Amino acid sequence: MILVSFSSCQIVYECSLDGLTCNGVFLVTNLSNPNGGMIESLYNQKYRYRITDISSITFPTSNGLPCKIPYTYFNEQYYHCGTSFDCITKNDEQALCYRGRFFGGNTLPNGDPFAGYMVLDNINLPQQGEYELNFHILLITNSSLYPFNDFIRVSLYESSSKKTIGTRTYAQTNIGKENVWSSQSFRFSTSEITIILTVEFVREFKILNNQGFFGFDEIRIQQITSPITPGSSSTQPPFSTNSTIKTTEPKTSTPGQPITLSTGSTPTMQTYTPPYIPSSLVVNKKICDFEEYCYYDLYPINTEVLNRVSYLPIPGTEYSITDWNSFNLPTLRKKSCVIPFTYDQHEYNYCAKISGNYKCRTSIKSLEYDQCYPGSFLSSRSPEGNPFASFAQFRFKFDSLGKYVISLHAIMFCKGNCLKNDDYIRLTAKYISNEGTKEYLLIEINLKNIKSENKWELKSSYLNINTDDEKEILIIVEMGRKTSNEFITYMGVDDLRIEKYHETSKLPFLVSEIAFGILLFFNIALLFATMCTKPNMREEQKNDDQELNPIPNPNQLREF
């Protein structure tokens, strides 16, 4: 007797990684180099080949038709958009591709070990039960001698229990054709309605002058409305059993178990620990730049009082505030903004609206302008001048105890008689523990203590993590107004980050002090000698000889 079971699927979760549509937080880190993150493309310098995302080759191009994949251009076959972000479409014409994003990374050209991960920590499902995870991955190893050295691991966990409910590892043996997006899927069962997805890129040991490329894109989860075929299993081997290559598979790991990365035949090792608590960040990373890399709660949500915006027009002026990244990241033509700059007799400390686009000056010698990076920031204001309070809340967990520096960039601008305005920006930390919540005010900014209105400023403070109970905190950014006033203050916050505090070594200052003492001794000796030989020296000359330069404070907070 043959048993047949039919199952139907309903899509309950989708994320293209192109924008802010994912319900979760991306945490990306790399051990060996900074080549990774949510990106538009990777570029293979050796073969002059660009790797672009799924959306770029499936969405309509500038002529309304999708790319013809694969297509041939100058006798070369392409599976991605070209170096100018264009492709050959289905009518054999050349057109510009849609610019999407994917999670990608690559090793250095010298072939060093590499590791990075992405975490999506808040995927909400309609109910407990059976599901199927679908996604696309890409892997270029450039080596047939070490088929398991480069791999991508995709794992699912239940949110509360951290129980592993599915994991797959993909290497050269089961990825399909290299340099081509490969559709993959596996089924899983969950007893919780909120799950966590992690994606890991790993190169275990160095392959000399061999560069690897990794990609992950297009998440889709489907609910299985009927049971899986009797006798089948949702558990699949991490690698294809059809492979005839006999070699050691990469070490699979449970959350928190380290993977050893070797730099070659020498015993020198690095350790990469896969993400165990996805809400934790590696220090020296941004908590949020209010674009794709963070998750936060807002109150009130998406109103005139508080909102995430790309620009904030100031009525009655020529200004529209743009975000911190807009003039600090490369422009459309990969140039750097010259800040401040003057346009149409107005000085700008951020991008200016020129011919319908936000642009900045890119040359000191000539009047050259280019389109700014399209970033976002958190803005707030009282539309009618009434008192208000608005909040953005971030959850953060430290990996270790110690002293940290927390910082943000802030901007405030008020047009009119604003001396009585009591608008403010505050940054508060709350330690979360079993004994309750401790709250500390770290930064407070207002019109009286901000150095320059209408200009982004860096503000920072210290934060001490002394016990394990203090490792998990809530970071709260509050913008508000205490009393009514007819003059509106426009406020913004961007580039929230935290990093481990490293006290500047006192040795350079000690050497300076010794040198200064010797110099002071010779100056005094010279002064006395001069007084003996020239008793009529003017008093102002004596004072000039004894002027001293201030000694820098060795404990001052370093800029970053």
CATH class of the domain at 9-53 and 100-228 and 259-272: Mainly Beta
Poorly predicted ranges: 1-6, 227-284, 504-511, 532-560
CATH topology of the domain at 9-53 and 100-228 and 259-272: Jelly Rolls
- Rounded to the nearest angstrom, the distance between the terminal CA atoms is 71 Å
Number of helices: 4
Give the radius of gyration: 29 Å
Mean pLDDT: 75
Number of strands: 37
Structural class: mainly beta
* CATH arch. level architecture of the domain at 9-53 and 100-228 and 259-272: Sandwich
Topology (elements, then pairings):
Blueprint: E1 9-15, E2 29-30, E3 36-39, E4 41-44, E5 49-52, H1 54-58, E6 71-73, E7 76-78, E8 86-88, E9 94-96, E10 102-106, E11 114-124, E12 129-140, E13 150-158, E14 164-170, E15 182-190, E16 194-203, E17 213-224, E18 259-262, E19 269-272, E20 285-288, E21 297-299, E22 306-309, E23 311-313, E24 320-322, H2 324-328, E25 341-343, E26 346-348, E27 352-354, E28 357-361, E29 369-371, E30 377-380, E31 388-397, E32 402-414, E33 423-433, E34 436-446, E35 457-465, E36 472-481, E37 489-500, H3 507-533, H4 539-545
